[in-house]
Amino acid sequence: MKLFSGTSNQPLAANIAAYIGMDLGKCAVKAFPDGETFVKIEENVRGEDVFIIQSTAPPTNHHLMEMFIMMDAVRRASASRITAVLPFYGYARQDRKDQPRVPITAKLVANLLVAAGANRILTMDLHAQQIQGFFDIPVDHLYAAPVMYEYLKTKKLRDLVVVSPDIGGLKMAHAYSQVLGAGLAIVAKRRKSATETEALAVIGEIRGRNVLMVDDLTETAGTISTAAALLKRKGARQILACVSHTLLNEMGVERLRKSKIDELITTDTVLRPGINGVKITTLSVASLLGEAIKRINCNSSVTSLFEFNGGRTS
Fold it and tell me: What's the gap between Cα 238 and its chain centre?
């Protein structure tokens, strides 16, 4: 087995390698003056089971192209199997035709991954689970929930209600509520634009309760910050947010600083600089991804990684 990392999240790749007990493979990733990417694999991969770790965080297109080039390089070097490890799968929000004459870009990315040489996909907390069906190769879809649950257990939150900040996250919120033994509520929202949402109403009882909002992805923090403001007006006490992939642009950081969220709990699936003025707890998913890689390499079952505390995340 050989592990290689692109440039999008090298600390996570190093932690995955450390968990497995091996070094990352040597490869050179450089840029030509005109912006083209050059990759050279600097060790033998003939007949090896190769795992390439790359999150499609911003700059998304650059990191995707880098991954395609790396996969092409190891395929041409006669690797026996190539697994694309995508802790964060970009373009996942473009998973359907919801307007005339728009692409299904999540499917296009799936096609490109296979064309570049992927024999298998390992990813975490897809924005839409049906994206697994866009591939005709095996997809192992992990969840960050077991890691989140271990942390939440240490907080010993009482009178807890799990809230989905929109209808799309209801299934995830229900899974958290079942495992945490908490109530369930949902915020009805209306999207005004790509960066702005409006929280309209809360379905469920949250007055005087501690609230845990759960979502898979935030970039502008519009959904969770407007939902938190509404929940506070409705009488919520402490407000925590659990988000698997926190990309956060400047707008998102500013919104979080002004929001009613007491703590944002997230993972290291994407590389993010430190942010002042916001309480962010970052949990590592390196052991979860590392264990999955070990089991895939040994052709063992990864099903138990979906289960925690007697429950399932899906």
Answer: 25
